[in-house]
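User: My instructor asked us to take a sequence, write out its structure as tokens, and then describe one feature of it. I'm not sure where to start. Here is the sequence I was given:
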Amino acid sequence: MFPCTDAFVIKLDPAGNVLFATYFGGNGSQTVASAICVDASGNVYLGGTTFPNTVSQPDTFPVTAGAAFTNVADGFGFVAKLNSSGTALVYSTLLPVSPPALAMPQAIALAIDTAGEAYIATTTAGALPFPTTPGAYQPAPPSYPYGSGVVAKLNASGSAMLYATYLSGNGLSVPQGIAIDAAGDAFVVGFTQAADFPVTPGAFQTGYFPSAEYMEFVTKLNPQGTGLVYSTFLGATRNYASEVKVDAQGGAYVLAQGGAELSSGGYLSHLSADGSALIYSTYLPTTNKFDLDLDSAGSAFVAGAAGYALLAASPGAFQSGFEGSLANAYAAKFTPDGESAGATYAGPLQTGATPLIAVAPNGAIVLAEQTSVFSIYPWLTVQNAASGEAGTVAPGEIVTLRGYGIGPATAAVAAGQAPVDQLGGTQVTFGGIAAPVFSAQSQQVTVQVPWEIAGQTSTEVVVTYNGGPPAGASASAPVVVATAAPGIFAVANSDGTLNSPSNPAKVGGFITIYGTGGGVTNPLGITGGLWPITASLATLTLPVSVSIGGTNAIVLYAGSAPTLESGYFQINVSLPSGPQASSAVNLVVTVGDSSSVAVPISIQ
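Assistant: Let's start with the prediction itself. The structure tokens for your sequence are:
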């Protein structure tokens, strides 16, 4: 007897240690998880397919009381929610879908909103009608019986569909990816053979290519599931998985396999917010196994499998070339305008593996495949030195550069309080302007972003070690320049001592916040210089607000930090009366339209 196939879920800590591991499935022939999401509380959502038990004993696939669909005859899909410790189901429901014919792949694509509602995209064959909801955009399937797309939204308790609609034409239509924006619009991507797949006037591509075996589609469905915001063909494709991510401006990023003319490789395309035009589209010359993620700045991170050394890695990359005889993972970063911003190999991989990618706020990436997980800084990465956040830089900000071979093996540290233009053989420039160096070692260099880049929207950071090649090394990367990118180093109480649980601030007093990335000051700071003690101090030019425990505090001063290096800012704040005695509360600094990562402070 062959063993049944179950899905499994494993949670690793940042060091790669297992926090929990659990199987998920029943006594049916196969349970496959094709999607996983995690909410802000750490709950885990799974989407996938399951085939019920066909022998005499009852099927044991786990469903919960009150779930939307609990009968194994209801269908072959499922959505389940595990608690944050992996010890119990919050809910588990079947989905009324059946596999498409023609040996086409079936998967459940999944996205989660802030309310814990699950958005689902998949395919079902006509033998099992999908129960649509009143007012649905497409309440009934087309006449084509072999595979129609469906999109649905499940409530937070898993007990009912908030909406359910078909999304298909008269031909095989297979949604493969789904993403949502802050308004609850659902972005669905996949492939179709239907020339009459629904598209909207003014969309980027409204005609089906006559010679295409399949066409990629991108559809934006309104929050109620009753109509299309836009729907467009994108290009010829093959029947491999495609993905979609959405940035803060509502732009869709689509990763897909190319058509027959691209026997190996695919494309990454960035659509405008209204679906009428491409911001960029670029060829990806790796195999047909891809994955996609975005960072907060709108940079796209792509992972694929490379069968041989076809592509170049960036200087300072985690792995500079192809290794071994098996396929390697290949990861690349593209800026919001499509410029190449870094690339690395990682591997070798298990044969046939599809590498998955996730980018952390600090610019590190996780690459996972069948037998390996890599958590790495893949190429030259620029972080806020206080918060560790990556993605943008601000004029004057103190930043940490992560990479490989960018400094001496033993750390070199500037002798005085002010940084120097060269340290331990390491030099750094932003847009050709020297960046003063606080410390330098092989994989980490801390510098000040020159104030002189103010007014730019992007620039290039270049790190040179020991004069660069051939004897030394160098690495470079484009970076987005923001007006502000605040991060918090420390918080001091009114007596000048550092705030901590054992040394809380006093209710009715004030605190001083020290950070970096506050943006331009008036007068402008001096790159590499110290803030002077003068009667008229430099102040931050952008509006500043401080939230403490969710309550807006009174900002008494926001500007230079006298005697400290000019990359630091100082904000003096009067404590609000809201927080309770001895409480630990979160503090957030907002400069312009950019907010810091929350840091805890103690008040008594």
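For the description part of your assignment, you could build on this observation: The mean pLDDT is 90. Try explaining in your own words what that tells you about the chain.
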